[in-house]
Amino acid sequence: MDKGNIVTKFYATDKIYLEDRKKLSKKYGKRELWQVIDPWALYVGISNLAIKLSIADLLRSTLDVPGHVAEFGSWRGDNLLFMAKILRIYDPYGSKLVHCFDSFQGLTEFTKKDGISPNKVKGLYGGSYEELLDFISLYKMKSEIVIHKGLIEKTLPKVLEENKALSFSFVYCDTDLYSSTKAILEGLHDRLSKGGLFVFDEWNHEHFHGEGVAVNEFLKEHGHKYKMRHVRNVRQPNLVLEKIEF
């Protein structure tokens, strides 16, 4: 708690919680996967639960906004499938799809504006493409989720060029880094519907500067078309840009 910011603010309580849950894990040992997943509310941490509730609220607020949903930086696909399941529950007969953009190689493309040494975090958040496909198949969501595998800086321009009419209502940005965030904002600014949301996971982050730098640069040019909103009662996501002018 030495700096009192969003990253270190909860250090002491997090440390206690992580130590306590490690003791419980040791006490009760390994369990069959679904014995943990189905009663998930028993096991999930409050901060992680807050993340899911905030994302659900934000996504539901855009159900009447035309356009698809996109996530950039899906890691293992947890949030991706969560949003797809939210749409299946609250808009089962709607046309919205969830687009996934990820290389599944973790953090790889660094610039000086990221303010972090690649040697420390390169490859962090690498996901399992095969595991993600297995769970998409389990929940019969192949027709609801579209995966664009590869570097965002390369796949997004190609997707937009091939799909001139493609528009979005909700865009979740969780890439942490400058170049990918810049590509997302520049590519989707004209494709985000009025009332749509850009949601950022690492804005104003103590260690990962790139996402915030890209957002701030974008707002210097297009800020008059967006309303900045803080996400209450959750650490991440921590910034919403609501498009107020098309």
Write the layout of secondary structure elements.
Elements: H1 11-28, H2 33-37, H3 40-43, H4 46-60, E1 68-72, H5 78-90, E2 98-102, H6 118-121, H7 129-138, E3 145-149, H8 152-162, E4 168-173, H9 178-188, E5 192-200, H10 210-222, E6 226-229, E7 239-243
Parallel strand pairs: 1-2, 1-4, 2-3, 4-5
Antiparallel strand pairs: 5-7, 6-7
Helix pairs in contact: 4-5, 8-9, 9-10
In short:
The protein has 246 residues and is an alpha/beta fold. The chain has ten helices and seven strands. Strand 4, helix 9 (178-188) and strand 5 form a beta-alpha-beta unit.
General description of the model:
This protein is α/β, with parallel strands linked by helices and 246 residues long. It has two domains: 1-43, no CATH class; 44-243, Vaccinia Virus protein VP39 (Rossmann fold). Helix content is 42%, strand content 16%. The protein is globular, with a radius of gyration of 18 Å. Residues 1-6 have low confidence and may be disordered.
Q: How far do the termini sit from each other?
A: 42 Å
Widest β-sheet, arrangement of strands? 3-2-1-4-5-7-6
CATH architectural name of the largest domain: 3-Layer(aba) Sandwich
Tally of distinct domains:
2
What is the CA-atom radius of gyration, in angstroms?
A: 18 Å
pLDDT averaged over residues: 92
Our estimate of the beta-strand percent is 15-25%
CATH topology label of the largest domain: Rossmann fold
| Helix amount | 40-55%
Poorly predicted residue ranges: 1-6
